[in-house]
Amino acid sequence: MTKRWILKAMAGIATAAPVIALASTLFGTITVNGGPAGNRPLTVACPNLPPVPITTYRAGSYRVVINFTGRCTLQVDPPNGPSTTVVFHPDGTRYDFDLSQGALRRR
Predict the structure, then answer these.
(1) CATH number, position 90
(2) Which of 89, 97, 38 is nearest to 65 (CA)?
(3) What's the structural domain count of the chain?
(4) Considering the domain boundaries, does residue 4 fall inside one?
(5) 50, 62, 69, 71: which has the fewest Cβ within 10 Å?
(6) Residue 28: how many CB atoms within 10 A of its CB?
């Protein structure tokens, strides 16, 4: 009798648990002509989500976590800076870029 009660209670907890969206992480570094692009503004724009503004750290690294999986646009120095397509994946995605001659080049 006690065993059945415990199993029913556990089943009730499992069905009452809220659905958690999977967060995806995008990270990497941005350099300018080979040196760190520290304190540079970035924007990540994904379909049906508001743009996410971030800033690179002093060493040029960046990291953004959002509840989205799929293709987005990463832009350096918005609104008129260069941009490129990136892909958010639940396991995390690393993109390293060099900003030279007004273009983002993946390293």
Answers:
(1) 2.60.40.10
(2) 89
(3) 1
(4) no
(5) 50
(6) 18
Q: Determine contact, residues 28/106, Cβ cutoff 8 Å.
A: no
Has residue 38 been placed in a domain? Answer: yes
- Rounded Cα distance, 81 and 30, in Å: 13
Of 9 and 89, which is predicted with more confidence?
89
Residue 81 lies in a domain: yes
Q: How many CA atoms lie within 13 A of 69 on its CB side?
A: 7
CA–CA separation, 25 vs 89, rounded Å? 7
pLDDT greater than 50 at residue 17: no
Residue 93: closest CA among 30, 16, 26, 22: 26
Range of the domain at 88: 21-106
| 6 close to 13: Cβ distance less than 8 angstroms | no
Handedness of CA 80, 54, 22, 98 (dihedral sign): positive
Residue 3 — φ and ψ, nearest 5°?
-60, -45
